[in-house]
Design a protein that fits this description.
By secondary structure, the chain is of the alpha+beta class. The chain is 39% helix and 11% strand. It is built from seven helices and four strands. The two termini are 39 Å apart.
Length: 171
Amino acid sequence: MTRTPLGEVACSIARATDLFGDAWTALIMRDVLTGVTRFDDLAHDLGISRKVLAARLSRLVEEGVLIRERYQERPPREHYRATAKGEELYPVLLALMNWGDRWYSGTAGPPARIHHLSCGQDTTAVCACAHCGEPLTAGNTTQLPGPGGRVGPGTRVLGPLIAAREPDREG
């Protein structure tokens, strides 16, 4: 059986995971969004091989998630900065952090806190309905057909399940 690249699956999770699915990419984005932006600092912080780091950074730049920006002319030095597309990954990282804090932080507690500068409080991210503000859960949501949905590799069972749902049957 031929394997379909995740980027070609009619599923936004599959397409996003194609880029963002390995741990190094998530950790690179964590560091860049937190202020670690230079190649050597990223390599040192993450303990990642320079070859792997270069490949991941190149892909993130190619996908428009990061940009390389010159910060010094002599000698030439560049660092990485998140684009708007890259900054929109922050809530994804916060969701992973919340889950990791809940299930894996151990007795010492979470390794970092999120402090909201606008209100001055420590906080956690909440995934909520854009209309009513109620927290979203697997139990109070369902997926309905979207205009880009299709049955194919990666959605052979899920695609027909979602396609069969009608909005008026969902509560």
